């Protein structure tokens, strides 16, 4: 079964990008060695993005940065494992690697099973 | 404090991700597969006992490695009271424990690859190779392997014990295959991984026609191999082949688990992510292979012809037939020739396919292989020789080992004789 791990944090208080990249690089290396990592991607700051929404029958859009949102998705990984427990363990690894490589980084990893 | 259930789950997960590296490193130190596995398992038991109180360590793999090495060292020390050789080993190990941990990391890829080579040692039967690979490299328990192979746990356990004994007898651990032997051993590893995949993709025994968990294990082993041997074209070729074939898993089984033929599959259910990754791996395989693609890359290219066709009518059958011809030259396999007969039938009409299929009927390597009458049945039906077709499908059903497939072939036999 595949899970998408969405890495979220407050982009206003994130540590230097190189540190976060180093963390993701290590996670990528581990994931390739143990065969669990299917895909990995990082997202640029929300300033480069936009939100399109539909409410009350009206479609509207705002460009980033998304100042009012506290936690934003900054990266994602698709992993293939046998259970949610295994996915949780990889999520824990991802947090531990951030703790080591990007001190001061705070955030979370939302783990969602991919349908199908 | 961690809840005991959480710790159990964490240890299980860490074991699955890290046991190959752990056992691989311990094999290097101890020179024995059985002893290495035991030491690794002891470390896992220690984790179960300690983590509920201490919490799960930030780097569980490193924790397990340290504990395992310490246990091994304690064992050497005890033995050292009796002889000098163990004392020397204990000192060496103490040195390696004290050394920079980054040092040990450099060995890791070699350790896992060496472990794979050991599991696929030529002195072992194919059965033993696949079982040991699942146990030591994929980190499956004996019970899980028994479930995967529909065998009894006791039989699988016995097979593992016997395999380890054989490895000791032939000094498998001491060998460091190099050059041509290394290439041969890598080929054996790829063969074992593909065998696992195929057993999941179309099971040879039992009621279930497919066993996707085995496919997942094989795909994972394939991904590990691309990390360990990134410069080998066939490693990427195999990964491509498995991804492309696995992209059809969901579409291949009907509501009651019955097979759905390629032409009848709902192509919208093919997994686009797997196809994309398969095509990327294939491009890498072809880049590395240059002018002479290997058997896995060729088979992946054939799978890619299907993956690229939005409808069955768009399939490039002449290209597939040509690829099978190339593959037949590379492998000399009559099964490939049988597949070429199918492709010829689609590309140039059933008579063209039948001409080749008829030549294969007497092939000794294919005697008792249900797909020969099954393919002939299909081609005969399409040229209008319905009675012969019905007889061939019935014969194929008698030879098929798998219940769903048998039922499917009997149905085709009935259909061929009725509609004529």
UniProtKB/TrEMBL annotation, chain B:
Annotated ranges, domain RNA polymerase sigma factor 70 region 4 type: 116-167
Transcription regulation found in the keyword field: yes
Protein name: RNA polymerase sigma factor
Domain of life assignment: Bacteria
Name of one Pfam family that matches: Sigma70_r2
InterPro entries in alphabetical order: DUF6596 (IPR046531), RNA_pol_sigma70_r2 (IPR007627), RNA_pol_sigma70_r4_t2 (IPR013249), RNA_pol_sigma_r2 (IPR013325), RNA_pol_sigma_r3/r4-like (IPR013324)
Keyword Transport: no
Source organism (scientific name): Agromyces tropicus
Domain DUF6596: 185-285
Keywords, sorted A to Z: Sigma factor, Transcription, Transcription regulation
Family affiliation: Belongs to the sigma-70 factor family. ECF subfamily.
Every RNA polymerase sigma-70 region domain range: 21-81
């Amino acid at each position: 079964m595949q899970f998408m791990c969405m890495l979220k944090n407050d982009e206003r208080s994130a540590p230097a990008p190189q540190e976060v990249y180093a963390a993701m690089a290590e996670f990528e290396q581990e994931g390739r060695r143990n065969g669990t990592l299917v895909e990995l991607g990082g997202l640029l700051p929300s300033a480069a993005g936009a939100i399109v929404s539909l409410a009350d029958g009206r479609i509207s859009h705002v460009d980033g940065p998304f100042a009012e949102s506290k936690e934003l998705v900054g990266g994602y990984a698709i992993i293939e494992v046998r259970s949610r427990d295994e996915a949780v363990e990889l999520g824990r690894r991802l947090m531990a690697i951030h703790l080591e490589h990007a001190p001061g980084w705070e955030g979370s990893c939302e783990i969602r099973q991919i349908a199908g | 404090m961690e809840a005991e259930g959480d710790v159990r789950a964490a240890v299980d997960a860490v074991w699955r991700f890290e046991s190959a590296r752990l056992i691989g490193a311990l094999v290097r130190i101890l020179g024995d597969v059985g002893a290495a596995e035991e030491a690794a398992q002891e470390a896992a038991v220690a984790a179960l006992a300690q983590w509920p109180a201490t919490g799960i360590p930030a780097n569980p793999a490193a924790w397990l490695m340290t504990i395992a090495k310490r246990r091994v060292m304690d064992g050497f020390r005890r033995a050292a009271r009796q002889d000098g050789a163990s004392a020397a080993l204990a000192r060496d190990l103490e040195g390696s424990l004290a050394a920079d941990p980054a040092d040990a990391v450099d060995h890791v890829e070699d350790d896992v690859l060496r472990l794979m080579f050991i599991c696929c040692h030529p002195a072992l039967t194919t059965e033993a190779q696949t079982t040991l690979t699942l146990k030591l490299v994929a980190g499956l328990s004996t019970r899980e392997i028994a479930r995967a192979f529909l065998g009894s746990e006791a039989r699988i356990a016995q097979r593992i014990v016997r395999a380890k004994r054989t490895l000791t007898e032939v000094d498998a651990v001491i060998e460091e295959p190099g050059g041509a032997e290394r290439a041969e051993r890598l080929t054996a590893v790829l063969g074992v991984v593909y065998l696992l995949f195929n057993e999941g993709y179309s099971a040879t025994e039992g009621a279930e026609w497919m066993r996707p968990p085995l496919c997942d294990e094989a795909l994972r082993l394939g991904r590990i191999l691309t990390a360990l041997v990134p410069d080998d074209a066939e490693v990427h070729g195999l990964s491509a082949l498995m991804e492309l074939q696995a992209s059809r898993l969901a579409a291949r089984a009907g509501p009651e688990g019955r097979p759905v033929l390629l032409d009848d599959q709902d192509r919208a259910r093919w997994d686009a992510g797997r196809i994309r990754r398969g095509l990327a791996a294939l491009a890498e395989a072809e880049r590395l292979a240059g002018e002479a693609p290997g058997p896995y890359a060729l088979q992946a290219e054939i799978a890619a012809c299907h993956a690229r066709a939005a409808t069955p009518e768009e399939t490039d059958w002449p290209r597939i037939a040509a690829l099978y011809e190339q593959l037949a030259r590379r492998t000399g396999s009559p099964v490939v020739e049988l597949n070429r007969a199918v492709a010829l039938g689609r590309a140039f009409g059933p008579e063209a396919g039948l001409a080749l299929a008829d030549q294969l009927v007497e092939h000794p390597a294919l005697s008792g292989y249900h797909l020969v009458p099954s393919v002939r049945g299909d081609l005969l039906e399409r040229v209008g020789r319905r009675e012969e077709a019905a007889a061939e499908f019935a014969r194929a059903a008698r030879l098929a080992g798998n219940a769903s497939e048998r039922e499917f072939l009997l149905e085709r036999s009935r259909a061929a004789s009725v509609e004529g």
